[in-house]
Structures are given as structure tokens and as C-alpha cells.
Amino acid sequence: MKCCACGGTALATAGAVRMTRKDGSLIIFTEVPLSQCRQCGEQYLSGHWAERLGELLHRGDELVPQEVVAVPVVTVRGGS
Ligand SMILES: [Zn+2]
Question: I need a labelling partner for 22 at 20 to 30 A (CA). Which of 41, 50, 51, 53 fits?
Fold first, then answer.
């Protein structure tokens, strides 16, 4: 398939998908089948998997993570 962002070629692969929960916490799903652009790295999830991850995200409290990593958060203020 073609990348919507840059027009490059997106290839089927498996990768990590980051999703944010309603409370602002981050969940990373790994080894998700998706298409990724070779040029800009844009990821495309199939509808089926987007739905599945949405479901998993919804019952986030029941998920058992393989590992928990600390994520640096940097706020960049605009203006002068
Ligand atoms: Zn692209």
C-alpha cells in the first residue's frame, strides 16, 4: 500500500504501537501486525487490529504487561 503521509511504500511488518489511555498513561503494544512506511516510518493499522487494541486499551487494568518502562515526558512551550 501507499503511505498517505509521504507517498512512499508501506510494507507489512510487525511493530510496536503506542496508545494513550484516557487518564493520559501510555501503553505500548508490541509485535502488532501493521504496515509501515519505508520512507517516513508512518504506521498503518488494519481496522481489525485497531479495534482489538482499542478493546485491550479499554480494559487496561486487566492487562499484564511484560515489562514497564519509564517514559520521558518533555513539555515544549511555543512562543518566544
Ligand atoms: Zn511515508
Answer: 41
